[in-house]
Write a structure and sequence with these properties.
single chain, 495 residues, alpha/beta, 6-stranded mixed β-sheet, 35% helix, elongated
Amino acid sequence: MQVSATIQPASDSDADTVVVGLFDGEQPSGDVPPELGRLLESGEAKGSFKALALTHADGRRWLTVGLGARKDFTPEHARVAAAVARERARELGSRKLGWQAPLAPDADSENAAAIVGALVEGTILADYRFDLHKSAPAGKDDAPKHLDQLLVVVPADGPLSGEQAETATADARTVAEAVNSARDLQNRPGNDLTPTALAEYARALGEEIEGLQVEVEGRSGIEGLGMGAFAAVAQGSEQEPALIVMRYEGSNPKGPLLGYVGKAVTFDSGGISLKPGPKMAEMKFDMSGGAAVVEAVAAIARLRLPVKLVAVVGATENLPSGGAIKPGDIVTAKNGKTIEINNTDAEGRLVLADCLCHAVSLGAERIVDLATLTGAVIIALGSTYAGIMSNDDAFTELLTAAGERTGEILWRLPLHPEYDELVAGKYADLDNAPEARKAGTIMGASFLQNFVGETPWAHLDIAGSAWDLGRAYVGKGASGYGVRLLVELARSYSA
């Protein structure tokens, strides 16, 4: 999709559909035709959030979308409104969409840029479709599935110059396209996106993007690094596992060396502790944390943010076989900790344990990991929030603030020494799945805390947010959750 910004009136553009946002109790801003005014007078066009109305004038469609009260309007509202407008434009067969950005003349430029960026993100994310494995119906003339062009119109006397608006739209496009690329990775089935395929994809990004280096280790390399926990999960599958390391350093980098760690179990059957059959197909999504990390790093490198970053992604399948780990087995992680495997379906924390150790060994000074780790987080928080658990208050506040700005919001759950006692092993240092069914999400984080030492670290359990998030701009299927959050975290250090 071609994305651009302009200070010229929408009526002078070649957009076939122009979207005008309406605030409750306010008249529309910008250049609008009399026909739109009549929609308002009749009560058909409303300012209530997400309300839609349509008219025709000047040879194009004019679509109004309600934005609610101006005092409550945020970038997240803008994303949702943009997605709602995009869906209606799809029904209308639009190819070139124009948005009259609802910017108050007295708005500060930072907030105005965030609103413009959110309109772009909401449109691009809502434009997404995953059709890789669908054959096209012969001879069927469907309406266009994707927009060709998005034009964001900002007021000439508003808080943003044309150049600032162009930068905001270009950056938002880069991030939104990274989210959609992560969704592509998530949606690919396990027989297509194997650990090797994910590693090859990351390698290709390294060849394409300036300043991004990618290294991959296979089974022998993982074992050679002493990653006994990761290797144990991988031994049940004939597919080669992959340890993916991505490095990026921008010009004149600021802040600490950031470490991003992602769980990428490309298919999780549960292993010997086999999952129930219903919805097992969704376990292709168990690599969602890894997908978010890969695409966030790619976006950060494309944006050329002035930060230092190392990312570690552990990719494997978790399958039952004659060679698979068994309940009761004991393995040794990279840092020497021994672990009782009392449930082979608690494999993600084993992969992450070694990946966290590796990030520490590579010098990461702040670490955040993303994983679809526990069903318990869905019971606790649903899909609205991802859970965050951390050993560092300041780092938690930084991540939480980044989540508020991106709409990928986080809710902190506690860590406490009493939880550490729950993950203590009977025959080894640690138990990967204690029998007491208490605080499941927190126990996962308490387990992982053993592998970061004193490094400031946060664990994000995204099991409820990685797919079927239900927000207007992502809906069902893969959500790409975490890409925008991780990019925004890097931005917060680059300011």
